[in-house]
């Protein structure tokens, strides 16, 4: 496979962009990473994802594939000679897909809601929702991993990628708000998993450093708050 | 397969509940339909879907599977001897999953927004969004069906089920608001498809009549508006 045959359009701070990158690393597929410029959208992005105009986009053999979890499933189905990303059993696949949808539809909106919260009460409510979600995900980790290191068992799988891509922003959110969201006492399984996930060979080079994300978030806040202060 | 081995927890007016029912019909799998009582949640539902407490739930061999599109994929992967629901080509699968996500995340919220709209301006905006979405879906139909009767080709597939389950409510919304959303001039492909889909053997017995949905909607509105009028 020529390197230029597989491209990812993305941006380093985006957790959703990490998903196809990790999936391609798991499959040992080389790819070209095309970084979008902050605040503008390339012609290639607009052509490749005319409906949402959003990253990530995977371009494989000149065909665009959009939506991060759709891309991860595509990667799993195309590069079948590499390690499997989805579980092989249909019920386990359904459970992985269920929790991935929960993460995107419920849990991550709560986490990003911490930064958007207006006032201390709303912020504490969002923090509470994130913590409740992590208790559910701790339970899911126990059931999915069955005592093994990852949701996917011995290897990083679909649910590892779906949740793990948010670990950088989880740590940055903790640091910026002086809170502990992933807690050793309440989430012992997830704490160990998070360490293993972030240091995994398929992940460590694409997982941004917490301080770099904090800097990025401060820059974003300054930018969006600027008009109101003038 | 004993009939009682496959159960669907649902309610007749729910488009999401139609998805697993149509998928099981496509696969010629008998199932028991357990109708939830309007306004309350059964103990079986609360036990089976403790995270969202929502229908539909498929119970197969005593294991619950939740979230309508997750269930449809599960059905496709378990009953492999029946006709395939997802396309066989990975790119076509990705395209079907992309549009199914678009329908749930963007298009259907616009359609249900017509009923929720406060004031004429908001209502017209929601109608405009639905119509724009149908233009995109008309284009998707052309590309996916490749001149055949369904998104899935010769047979009902994943995207047919994902969009088709909303046809009853689309027609009821048209009737209640005196508008034509699915338009012969703008959506010629989808108009023909909608007819074929609703009269298909796997669909016709689970697709509610438009008038019955209109009655149900009026009853719902009366119920929710009642407290404000006292």
Automatic annotation (TrEMBL), chains A, B:
It catalyses: RX + glutathione = an S-substituted glutathione + a halide anion + H(+). Residues 89-221 form the GST C-terminal domain. The keyword Coiled coil does not apply. It comes from the Eukaryota. Its EC number is 2.5.1.18. CDD domains: GST_C_Tau, GST_N_Tau. It is an enzyme of class 2 (transferase). Keywords: Cytoplasm, Detoxification, Transferase. One of its GO terms (cellular component) is cytosol. It is found in: Cytoplasm, Cytosol. GO terms for molecular function: glutathione transferase activity. Pfam families: GST_C_2, GST_N. Its main location: cytoplasm. One of its GO terms (biological process) is glutathione metabolic process. Residues 4-83 form the GST N-terminal domain. Belongs to the GST superfamily. Tau family. Is involved in the conjugation of reduced glutathione to a wide number of exogenous and endogenous hydrophobic electrophiles. PANTHER family: GLUTATHIONE S-TRANSFERASE U17, GLUTATHIONE S-TRANSFERASE, GST, SUPERFAMILY, GST DOMAIN CONTAINING. This is Glutathione S-transferase. It comes from Liquidambar formosana (Formosan gum). The lineage of its organism: Eukaryota, Viridiplantae, Streptophyta, Embryophyta, Tracheophyta.
